[in-house]
Amino acid sequence: MSQADRFYIFITVFLVIALVIGGVMLLFNRSKIQPAELVLSQAALPQQSGEVYISGAVVNTGIYPLREGDTIQALLSNIGIESSADLSYIGIYIPEEGEEQSPQKIDINRAESWLLEALSGIGETRAQAIVDYRNENGQFKRIEDLLQVKGIGQGTFDKIKDYITVSDSKTF
After folding, report:
1. What does pTM read for this prediction?
2. What percent of the chain clears pLDDT 70, i.e. is strictly above it?
3. I need a surface site. Which of 2, 84, 150, 167 has the fewest CB within 10 A?
């Protein structure tokens, strides 16, 4: 056998060994790469019930019951939305456990008589007197203007002053 023949055999054996090793490595790497199956599970939100405070461009600002299955749309349709409301932004604030809540304030420029009746010392007659005064004289400029309503004196005002507010409906 000539030296050239040995050289060709050596090259051929080398190429065969390289192909075998390459094939084994390729097969080994492919077996490691398995298609991954991703399972996206939607975590169930905890069911909420309790109360939700709604204010802003709504007919009746206040605290409303929140029951399991309620949607924002259902809550807003129950309380009434002002025509000027911007529904592209709705703010939700969730207090931390034990966080002190400020008292709910009733807007005496917007509240209906049934809501005013919730105030201490304001019954059906006084609530209607507030609404009538507002309809006849225009909106209250400050909460102290409530003293101008017949039947509401300083004692009644002192009991409710921390629970009432006034707003200009044009700002909504």
Report:
1. 0.46
2. 78
3. 2
